[in-house]
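Replying to the earlier thread about multi-chain prediction with a worked example.

Input:
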Amino acid sequence: MFKIKLLGLDIYGCHEALSRLDDFIDRELTPDEGRKVRQHLKICHACARKFAFEEELVAGLRDKMQHVALPRDFDSLQARISASLKQEADAPPDNTP
Amino acid sequence: MESNHPAPHATLEATAAEFEALLQPILKTAYSTAFYLSRSHEDAEDLLQESAVLAFRAFEGFERGTNFKAWFGRVLHNRFLERVRTANRRPQTVSSEGDEQLDALYLFNRTREAGMHGRGKDDPAVVLLDSLDGAQIREALAALPDEFRVVATLYFVQELGYEQIAQVVDCPLNTVRSRLHRSRRLLQKALWQLAQERGLVSQDEAAPAKPTGKGKGGRGLASWLLMLLFPLNAPALSLGNGSLKGREHRATGARMSYHVQNQTFRA
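Result:
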């Protein structure tokens, strides 16, 4: 799709939008770029599907990865960490690496 | 700010309490991070415990009020690198020039080829992820070379932004950005391979087959002819179509409607 001018405004074609997919997902586009991408997605269903897929994938991965099964003894790990820290506080080492 | 004199015991205990108060809320996330960086729960536990001690020793260097999660992440990452070094593992490196044909829409295209998109169907991204459990997701992560797995983990698990990730891994922003984008593509590839192994997609459909040119549903000329000759038995003569449940024939040509059309994309 070619970059077109609509009502004097620059509009993104599919190529401009898709080349910004990753940054869009990361919310790292400039406000102007973001607006132009969203405008394109409003009128292009094909790109809208692609963007939606990537968004779902990223959100789903985030969700799944954050709910990794903790080991059965996570509480005891916490206790061990607390104990280690207490040990450090009680007998701080000299600054050997 | 902090004096360099050795702190009296009581003050050190207070510092430990302060440190723990900061560590406690992020501990599970930190464990998840360690889990994905490491190869086992045991390694993850060791990594986390060692990092906690190291972070505590360096706690004076932490500027109060700033992002403790990112700061601790850096300690964790450094310790991870150190453990990799001492384990005599050569860190995997992947040339950033390689594999450029791995497109950003890898999984979109594979799932589309497999017929997972279509009106009335559940979201293919959701279907795919739902079919994989946590251990398999970790497998997909583990398939990535270290530096890609690190940024992916920080992004997904710790939800750090580019700048924070750059602070943790001590790399320029653009490196983080390109590494993160590439890691997502590598992850898509790994996820798809896992899905294939798991039988979510039959091998026939998984192969990016060129259409036979006759039927949009991938039917060859032979099967169409047979259907003409034996119309009553047509269903029994379907050839080579995969076992994917609920597959919709792509010959409908109807406009696919997706809930996403009404979705607003956040800036």
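The helical segments of chain A are 14-18, 21-25, 31-43, 45-66, 74-90.

Feel free to reuse this layout for your own posts.
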